[in-house]
Every structure is written in structure tokens, then in C-alpha cells.
Write a structure and sequence with these properties.
The structure holds two protein chains of two kinds.
Chain A (H helix, E strand, L loop, with lengths): L4 H8 L6 H23 L7 E7 L16 H9 L2 E8 L2 H12 L9 E2 L3 H9 L3 E2 L29 E13 H4 L6 H4 L8 E4 L2 H11 L13 H12 L3 E5 L3 H7 L4 E5 H10 L3 E4 L5 E8 L1 E2 L4 H14 L2 H11 L8 H8 L1 H6 L9 H5 L1 E2 L6 H15 L2
Parallel strand pairs in A: 1-2, 1-3, 6-7, 6-8, 10-12
Antiparallel strand pairs in A: 4-11, 5-8, 5-9, 5-10
Chain B lengths: L1 H43 L1 E2 L8 E2 L4 H42 L4 H9 L6 H11 L5 H6 L15 H25 L4 H8 L4 H30 L2 H6 L7 H10 L4 H26 L7
Helix pairs in contact in B: 1-11, 2-6, 2-8, 2-11, 6-8, 7-8, 8-11, 10-11
Chain lengths: 392, 292
């Protein structure tokens, strides 16, 4: 199962949209997990350093240097004297879990003070009681968290996590192939597109969109029966409508016209559409999913490290610093005031302030849903069913 | 007497020397083969009290029954695809190796170097590159669609054809190299002798060259078939849900579902079946020649 790495890589490397470029980003995705192997082994760390293990290309890098002049990490060090040991080791939520589970289940520290799992994985870590509370007294800027992400189901009290970046899953399509605009999930099942429809290997995005199109809610998964959504998915796999299940590599299929449409992520399309205006993104009328990666502190960090982590979170929740990150990563920022800061920056950054994929309008936001916490047992059933249908 | 004593110690030293020389290999095998296999067997007989807990050993054989009952289509497909890829690799690789060995002349090393060149690129990239080459609107697919039995909306990607093609392409070097080595060692004056005795060139090839090169074919077949049967990247990038192989299932069981016992059982079943197939295969082709 792939993930968002290449997606993120892709965003930054739009200049090179060749097959080779996609290949090399996939290679980077592979290297990522190995890098983190070494980063997570270095347990502890001095009080004046802070370890943050994040996804690839998910922070600004002035002149390709993490600590480049004027960059977030350099500015943070200037402001607080704390040097962030920043690694890009997260490649995939499940892979991350497989890596830290043996340590956290025994109460051993994993080495990184902050990690950025996706919200549902953060919820799992919290349920397993593997997270420390955030030092909220150090983070007054947490008040800048946008309304829609406050007290999410994975962390109802908001004491254990702060979103890092956010994005939408919806329908991505190539209008040159479809020949028309798509607006609903039923458009995906149009027999004219047989064998040219793609799904994501991310179960929550794929099943989520199908479930919503059948009127099934995502907020309280344990009270819902998702069997109709799985049945629909199975039907469309069996009749050949669905060609393949992919991770981020769907961007290639979409560009090349192998896909007419697929379930995709807003951030990719924001970038793809710059070079290819035929590539479009729409949140289906029945609804799309809103996901976010979130900063958490796994148990085992020292009091000093937790404090330093708080200072860092406070720093990146300052709209000026958040806007600098958004300018590079181009996802939906969880920090209020970023839009205004981008406008102030002028030029290309100001154009981002008006991009509906970064700042969705109210009607789009109203159609987005975030999965509630799925119980362990139900998640296992759903993962198994999804694996069976997707041929894994 | 003194002489006998020294002789004796010499003998004793001689008796243990082979073991001393072997010890790095034995330690290697113990540490990196036997111990992991024992761990795998133990994991395959375990159960998990809950999804995120560590597996507990419990003599639970249900992982094996479900491995066979639920995943036999994937097993069959894996062996079918890997077998087809192996046959294709022989059909393409043997003539190439033969040509290099007999007509390569002073270019032999260069030509063999060319066979290895693809390895300078990552396996993953080589596989993904095929998605560009075989894309639906690309020239290769356009040619493919001209075939009488392929419709105008035919495609190569996301079909068994692409998966088998990918497996063949990715592993064919492992077929060419051992065949080349065994052909290279053959004294081709034997074919002249066969001709002197009235044999046609084809008959000389069939009766002399082919049997002598069989160890290479055997080694190449193992090197292609075994990794191809457990492969999941080709099915993942070039296939569809209908072409998934057992490697895909193991990867998902292990990394997505954390079902280590089931993943271990699937891996062991794969190992056992492959071992059995290799033993049967070696009965037909013989392994004695491998040492030559």
C-alpha cells in the first residue's frame, strides 16, 4: 500500500512531470522508510533539541535546505534556540504503526518527540494509550486552529493532537477523456468509462465516498453498516468498471488518460491542473472526505522534550509561519489567518489564497465528512473486506 | 612412534579443518535461515488476542487451513504467472545466450554486460516505467489493438499479459546468465564430431548441446520462478484486482492488517509448495550437472 509520499513529492516537483520523475519519487518513497529506521533508533536527545518525524516534503525547504535561511526550522531555532532534528521518515500510516508498535507496546520511547500520523491513526494511538498530552500552556496559538478541525472524533478533547496539514478526497478526472464534467459518484459508474476508473488503496477514502453516495454517514461508524458500500465496490470491480486500486501513483494514470476518473486527493489536482487544465477535481454532490495529518507526542519523551515540542507547535500555529509552510506544501492549512498572510506575501503565494482546493468555499466544506473512530473489531472486518475486494 | 603421533594430530586437525572453514557459512545459515524459519513457523501457529497485541503461540493450525481455503486462487495465479514467465524467459533467453556464447567473439563480455545493465536501475522504477510504455493511448497499445482478436478498446495494462510480461522482463537476466555460463563451457568441437558422424546441425544441438546446457536452464528456471512466484510489485503496478498474486496478499496481511500469523502461514505454504515443485523439477532435469 502506497501513501501520500509521492503525492507530496509530486506537488513540489511539478516541473518534472515525466514518467521518470514519477519513478524517482516512488524510489524516494521507498528510501523514506529506511531513513526513518535510523532516525527512530536515536532515543531521547538533549533538552535543547527536538525530534520531529514527518512525511516527505511536507515543510518548506529554502534552497533545498531544511535549515535554509528564512525557513521555518531556521526561524524557529533563531526564536527559541531549539534545533529541530527533522526527519522525513513517515511513508505510510500502517507502516509507521508496524514500526512503532513493538516499542510503544513495551513502553519504550520511539526516539521521535513529535510524529504526524493521519487523524485515524492518531486516534488509534490515543485509544491504545500511547500518547502524552500536549503542553497546551506552551501553545497559546492553538486558538488559531480552524473551526472545522476543532475537537475531532479521533481526539474529542483536543488535548492530544494538533493538525499539521489537511486535504480532501473527491473525484479527480481528466476531461479530455470523459468529455464532460463529473459531479456525482454515479458519474463514475457510467458504462462509457468501463475499465477507466481508479480507486484509492486508502480504505477510508474509497469506502467513505461510496458510502456517502449511498447516504451512509461517516461520523459514527460503529452504528453504521457499510456492507452496501462494499457490495457496490465489489460489483464495480467484478464488472470491470474499476481498473485498479492505487496510492499516489494514480496521478500518472490520470495524466496519461489510462483513467477517465478516479478517487483522488485535492493537493495533487491543484498541482496537476497547472500544467494540464483538463485534470479537474470535484467534491461529489453526495460528499467527499476531509483528512488531516496531526502532530502527536508518543509516550516516552522527557518533560523538556515535551515542552520543546509545545514551543514548536506554537510556532507553526502562528499564521505567518503557517503561511510559509502552506506556500510550499499547498495543502489546506489548519491555521486561521493563513489566507490573509498569503495575500500579504504577494505574487504566486497570493494566487494560492484564491485557490478553492486550498481554501474550499462554504458549500464545499459543508459536503465534507471526516471518519469517526472505528472500533478495533470493526476496522479489522473492514480492512479484511476491503483487501479481499481490492485483490490484496 | 613420534612420527605416528604427529601423523595422528595432523589427521585430527585435518578432520576438523573443514568444519572450521565451513563455520562462517554454517553460522550464517543458522542465524539468517534456520532461526527466521523457526520464528516464522512459530508465528504461523500463533493467535492474536487482539488486533494490536503481540501474537501468542498457541498451536493454532487454522491459519494454514484458511491460507489454503481462502487464498488458493492467488496461489494458483502466482504459480501460473511465474511458470509462464519462466517458460517465456527460456524461450527468449536461451537463443540470446546461445548467440552470445557462439557468435559473441570478443564482444562476449560486452554483450553479457548489456544483459546486466537494467540492474543499474531500481527494480521498482523499471516496473513503473512499463506503465508509461504500455499506456492506453501509447504506440505499443495502438499496435496491440491491430491484432485481429483485440478490440479497438483493448488494453495491455491491468491485464495478466502486463503482469506476466513484467515478471519475464524483470527476471530474464537471471535466466540468460546461467544458461550463458553453461553454454560457454561446452566444447563446440563436439558438434563438429556429431556432424562428422552424419548428424544434422539441429540433431547435434538437440543431442549434444541442449543436454549439456540443461544445468544452466535448471538454475535459471529456479532463479526466475522462485522470486516471480512471491513477487507483488508487478501485480501491484501492472495488474488489476483480478490479477493479484500471493505476494500481494502477504504484504497486505503483514503491513495493513497486522495479521502476522496468517502472513507467516501464507509464506510457509508458499515455501513448501515451491520446494516441492523444485524437487519434482530437479527429478526431470537433474541437478548433478549443476556442480560442473
Amino acid at each position: 500500500m502506497t501513501n501520500r509520499v509521492s503525492r507530496r513529492n509530486f506537488l513540489v516537483s511539478t516541473a518534472a512531470l515525466s514518467g521518470l520523475a514519477v519513478g524517482s519519487t516512488a524510489l524516494a518513497a521507498c528510501g523514506g522508510s529506511e531513513e526513518s529506521g535510523s532516525s527512530t533508533t536515536a532515543a531521547g536527545g538533549a533538552a535543547d533539541t527536538l525530534t520531529f518525524d514527518n512525511w516527505t516534503l511536507y515543510i518548506d525547504k529554502p534552497n533545498d535546505d531544511l535549515f535554509g535561511e528564512g525557513g521555518t526550522l531556521a526561524e524557529f531555532q533563531k526564536a527559541t534556540g531549539i534545533k529541530v532534528d527533522y526527519t522525513e521518515g513517515i511513508n505510510d500510516n500502517n507502516e509507521l504503526f508496524a514500526k512503532i508498535q513493538p516499542l510503544l507496546s513495551k513502553g519504550d520511547p520511539i526516539g521521535a518527540t513529535i510524529i504526524a500520523p493521519t487523524y485515524w491513526m492518531a486516534g488509534r494511538l490515543l485509544q491504545l494509550d500511547w500518547l502524552d498530552q500536549l503542553p497546551l500552556s506552551e501553545i497559546p496559538n492553538a486558538a488559531n486552529l480552524i473551526q472545522s478541525l476543532q475537537n475531532p472524533p479521533n481526539d474529542p478533547t483536543g488535548e492530544y493532537s494538533l493538525p499539521w496539514q489537511s486535504g480532501m478526497a473527491g473525484i479527480a478526472y481528466n476531461q479530455a477523456v470523459t468529455g464532460r464534467e463529473l459531479t456525482t459518484m454515479d458519474d463514475m459508474w457510467d458504462p462509457a468509462f468501463r475499465g477507466k476508473i481508479g480507486m484509492l488503496t486508502e480504505m477510508r477514502d474509497t469506502i467513505g465516498l461510496i458510502a456517502m453516495s449511498l447516504g451512509i454517514d461517516l461520523a459514527n461508524p460503529d452504528d453504521q453498516d457499510y456492507q452496501p458500500a462494499f457490495a457496490k465496490l465489489e460489483e464495480e470491480v467484478a464488472n470491470g468498471q474499476i481498473r485498479q486500486f492505487t496510492g499516489n501513483d494514480y496521478v500518472d494514470d490520470l495524466e496519461q488518460g489510462n483513467y477517465a476518473a478516479c478517487i483522488g486527493w485535492s493537493g495533487d489536482v491543484a498541482q496537476l491542473s497547472v500544467s494540464n487544465p483538463d485534470i479537474k477535481f470535484v467534491v461529489p454532490e453526495s460528499g467527499g472526505t476531509l483528512w488531516f495529518d496531526t502532530m502527536v507526542i508518543p509516550k516516552g519523551a522527557s518533560a523538556e522534550q515535551i515542552q520543546a515540542a509545545g514551543k514548536f507547535m506554537n510556532f507553526v500555529y502562528d499564521p505567518v509561519n503557517a503561511a510559509r509552510i502552506t506556500e510550499t506544501v499547498q495543502y489546506i492549512s489548519p491555521v486561521q489567518g493563513v489566507q490573509e498572510e498569503l495575500r500579504k506575501m504577494g505574487g504566486e503565494a497570493a494566487a494560492l489564497a484564491d485557490n478553492p482546493l486550498l481554501f474550499p468555499d462554504a458549500s464545499t466544506l459543508a459536503r465534507l465528512q471526516t471518519w469517526g473512530t472505528i472500533s478495533e473489531e470493526k476496522e479489522q472486518q473492514m480492512d479484511e473486506e476491503f483487501a479481499r475486494i481490492s485483490g490484496a | 612412534m613420534a612420527a605416528a603421533t604427529t601423523d595422528d594430530t595432523g589427521l585430527r586437525r585435518g578432520r576438523f579443518a573443514p568444519y572450521g572453514l565451513l563455520s562462517p557459512g554454517i553460522i550464517w545459515l543458522l542465524l539468517f535461515f534456520l532461526v527466521p524459519v523457526v520464528m516464522l513457523v512459530k508465528a504461523s501457529l500463533s493467535t492474536k488476542p487482539s488486533r494490536f497485541a503481540d501474537p501468542e503461540f498457541a498451536w493454532d493450525f487454522s491459519n494454514y487451513t484458511s491460507a489454503l481455503s481462502e487464498y488458493s486462487p492467488e496461489f494458483l495465479r502466482s504459480f501460473l504467472y511465474a511458470g509462464t514467465a519462466t517458460v517465456l524467459a527460456i524461450l527468449v533467453g536461451y537463443p540470446l545466450a546461445y548467440w552470445i556464447a557462439t557468435c559473441g567473439g570478443r564482444w562476449k563480455n560486452f554483450l553479457i554486460g548489456l544483459v546486466v545493465v537494467p540492474f543499474f536501475t531500481s527494480y521498482l522504477i523499471r516496473t513503473i516505467a512499463w506503465t508509461s510504455i504500455l499506456q492506453d493511448d501509447g504506440p505499443v497499445t495502438a499496435l496491440y489493438r491491430l491484432l485481429p482478436w483485440v478490440g479497438s478498446d483493448g488494453r495491455i495494462l491491468a491485464t495478466p499479459l502486463a503482469v506476466i510480461g513484467g515478471l519475464t522482463y524483470n527476471f530474464i537476466s537471471f535466466m540468460i546468465l546461467p544458461i550463458y555460463v553453461s553454454l560457454e563451457k561446452i566444447d563446440f568441437r563436439l558438434t563438429e564430431a556429431a556432424a562428422d558422424l552424419g548428424s544434422t546441425p539441429w540433431r547435434a544441438f538437440r543431442k549434444v548441446v541442449l543436454p549439456l546446457s540443461m544445468p544452466g536452464v535448471f538454475a535459471g528456471s529456479l532463479l526466475v520462478f522462485i522470486p516471480a512466484a512471491g513477487d507483488y510489485l508487478n501485480a501491484r503496478y501492472l495488474g488489476s484486482p483480478q490479477t493479484s498474486m500471493i505476494g500481494t496478499v502477504v504484504q497486505n496481511k503483514f503491513l495493513v492488517q497486522f495479521d502476522y500469523p496468517q502472513a507467516a502461514a501464507l509464506s510457509l505454504v508458499l515455501m513448501v509448495i515451491i520446494t516441492a515443485m523444485v524437487l519434482i523439477y530437479s527429478r526431470f532435469l537433474g541437478t548433478e550437472g549443476l556442480a560442473v
